[in-house]
Write a sequence for this structure.
């Protein structure tokens, strides 16, 4: 995805998601494009902070993101982890 907008989300959903796949999001308005494409959307209300890591359905996402950040940090030592990892 080159941009994060309605068109790119719709295009991504069309190319990458199986028909009628359920999508879990954080409720960002742009994610309504998944509904327009015929997918069920479940919004995870996490309120941020530590509670976000314990939200039902979000645990595996946090594990994957943690593993990706750790992998990038291990391979690319020049990335300033403390500054950029949260993004």
């Amino acid at each position: 995805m080159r941009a994060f907008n309605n068109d790119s989300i719709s295009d991504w959903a069309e190319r990458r998601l199986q028909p009628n796949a359920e999508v879990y999001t954080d409720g960002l308005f742009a994610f309504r494009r998944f509904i327009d494409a015929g997918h069920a959307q479940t919004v995870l209300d996490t309120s941020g902070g530590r509670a976000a890591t314990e939200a039902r359905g979000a645990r595996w996402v946090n594990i994957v993101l943690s593993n990706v950040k750790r992998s990038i940090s291990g391979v690319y030592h020049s990335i300033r982890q403390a500054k950029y990892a949260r993004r």
Summary: The mean pLDDT is 76. The longest strand covers residues 22-25.
